[in-house]
Amino acid sequence: MAEEMAQNGYVRTSVASVLKRAGVSRRTFYELFDDKLDCFLSAFDYAGAIIRNRLLEAAGVKSSAQAGSASDPAALLEIGIASYLDALAAELPFAQLFMVQSHVVGVEAIHRRAKIQESIAHMFAALMGVNGPRGRYACVMFVMAVATKVTEPVAAGDAEAIRALAPELTGYARDLWDAGVFSDPGHPLRARRPGGGDPFAAGGPVAA
After folding, report:
1. For 19-41, how does the pLDDT look when each residue is reduced to its tens digit (9 = 90+)?
2. What's the longest Cα–Cα distance across the chain?
3. Which fold does the domain 36-191 belong to in CATH?
4. What CA–CA distance (Å, rounded) separates 32 from 111?
5. Which terminus of the chain is less hemmed in, N or C, by CB atoms within 10 Å?
6. Where along the chain do its domains lie?
7. End-to-end alpha-carbon separation of the chain, Å?
8. What is the Cα–Cα distance from 136 to 46, expressed in whole angstroms?
9. Surface-to-core class of residue 27, CB atoms within 10 Å of its CB (0-12 exposed, 13-18 middle, 19+ buried)
10. Is the pTM of this model over 0.90?
11. Closest CA to 125 of 201, 179, 74
């Protein structure tokens, strides 16, 4: 399904073309899926699982719950970003399905995309040991911004351009980390900020 849609798009992809590419019978298809949309959503969920698993593997942890104990959370954030980009570049058909075709399919796909992005943001938060509401919200906003940034090269099928975003995005993430954006007032992460202080003390940029 992902490969067929990457080539023809959701609207122009027929069940018959999926059957031909997959080498399965129509009967088998309808034993597994209700229709083309059901097949798409199944492939979509698989795409989200690929991205999440790549993030965990790159961080060298078995689950997001284990990640917060790492000694250099900001470095794990940078690894996570690079791994996210590498997963998209390595799995372009699924990346296009996730980033591009979801807007064509409709409300259910968009809803699932939002949920998957939120889960990815929570994984980034776990990697850094971020637990407060402001820090977790900052992770959600950052992941949404990264998704917007990568959509164009994903749509173009340009794996090199996707991976080339890594220095820019990891540099920006490090700046946000150093500014304390990912931590809440009073959180121990604040004490590790260069120069100390709280950038949110004067009614900062993000409200919990």
Report:
1. 888 888 999 989 999 999 899 88
2. 66
3. Tetracycline Repressor; domain 2 (1.10.357)
4. 22
5. C
6. 36-191
7. 40
8. 25
9. exposed
10. no
11. 74
Identity of the residue numbered 33: F
Q: CB under 8 Å to 93, separation ≥6 — which residues?
A: 2, 3, 5, 6
3-state SS, the chain, equals CHHHHHHHHHHHCCHHHHHHHHCCCHHHHHHHCCCHHHHHHHHHHHHHHHHHHHHHHHHCCCCHHHHCCCCCHHHHHHHHHHHHHHHHHHCHHHHHHHHHHHHHHCHHHHHHHHHHHHHHHHHHHHHHCCCCHHHHHHHHHHHHHHHHHHHHHHHHCCHHHHHCCHHHHHHHHHHHHHCCCCCCCCCHHHHCCCCCCCCCCCCCCCCC
154 in Cβ contact with 99 (< 8 Å): yes
